[in-house]
Amino acid sequence: MTHTPAAIALSVQGLQKTIGKRTIIRNITFDVQAGEVFGFLGPNGAGKTTTIRMIVGLIAPTAGRILIDGHDVRTDFLAAMHKVGCIVENPEMYKYMTGWQNLEHFATMLGDCTEERIHEVVQLVKMDARIHDKVKSYSLGMRQRLGIAQALLGRPKLLILDEPTNGLDPAGIRELREFIRTLAAEEGLAVFVSSHMLAEVQMMCDRVAILSGGEIVKVTSVHDIVEHGENRVEWTVDPLDIAHRVIAQELRNQPLEQVGTTKLVATVTRAQTAQINEKLIAAGVHLYSVTIQNQLEELFLQITGGESIA
């Protein structure tokens, strides 16, 4: 049985944006496939928002092409925009209206959206119980879900979410993450997520593009980062001297740092971490905790020279 490659929902090819004499986006190229969650990361001023504005046709690129479900944003704008739904930060809704009334209003603007489709998106975002309540009574997480429902009304192939977890509490963030994963897996939607929350991106996304200084410096699979990347690992142990000897033997010439009287820190792969844990237990060391720092954060800091993403 041959594997059919996923359709390309978004193709960005050689994108460039120059304002005056300053080039702020340089030769950006990447694809987003149907059914995947694609993370778009970069420090402040890296060009994330400018790129998104070009993708959705708010500003024109100086050079390059953007194809949404095969439609060129420059030459076939209406067809391209019909295939994309977009939410930038917190969606703006009419708070004095119900969720249903808001969706009806946006459906009217689309022109070809039926009441049946409104029912479908309400079920999709699991808002059946509250859809006839006024939006002013909704939590931020519910308003986010209503915004996504609105973005899905036109059956887009691509959903763009710019900082979707802004302002959400931990429960809301987890709920949104799981919902986004479900949209991609069950609906076959391509979801493009711009975010500064690296731990969330690592749990949510299939692949990530890292932007720095207006250029893509890396596009990589999150699985590869987790499985093959090196992680900063901290062990809390007792006794320290035996643990130090065991870990040092496993690391050979790799650096091993001591923090206080109970902690040891080293940069190792996931496989090395498991081997070290087994050796520590076999040596009779009490292993109180093993803390692995966010791998995506480590990679991000390495390739952007330590620039803050916030």
UniProtKB/TrEMBL annotation:
<comment type="similarity">
    <text>Belongs to the ABC transporter superfamily.</text>
</comment>
<keyword id="KW-0547">Nucleotide-binding</keyword>
<keyword id="KW-0813">Transport</keyword>
<protein>
    <submittedName>
        <fullName>ABC-2 type transport system ATP-binding protein</fullName>
    </submittedName>
</protein>
<dbReference type="Pfam" id="PF00005">
    <property type="entry name" value="ABC_tran"/>
</dbReference>
<dbReference type="GO" id="GO:0016887">
    <property type="term" value="F:ATP hydrolysis activity"/>
</dbReference>
<keyword id="KW-0067">ATP-binding</keyword>
<dbReference type="InterPro" id="IPR017871">
    <property type="entry name" value="ABC_transporter-like_CS"/>
</dbReference>
<dbReference type="InterPro" id="IPR003439">
    <property type="entry name" value="ABC_transporter-like_ATP-bd"/>
</dbReference>
<dbReference type="InterPro" id="IPR027417">
    <property type="entry name" value="P-loop_NTPase"/>
</dbReference>
<feature type="domain" description="ABC transporter">
    <location>
        <begin position="10"/>
        <end position="238"/>
    </location>
</feature>
<dbReference type="InterPro" id="IPR003593">
    <property type="entry name" value="AAA+_ATPase"/>
</dbReference>
<dbReference type="GO" id="GO:0005524">
    <property type="term" value="F:ATP binding"/>
</dbReference>
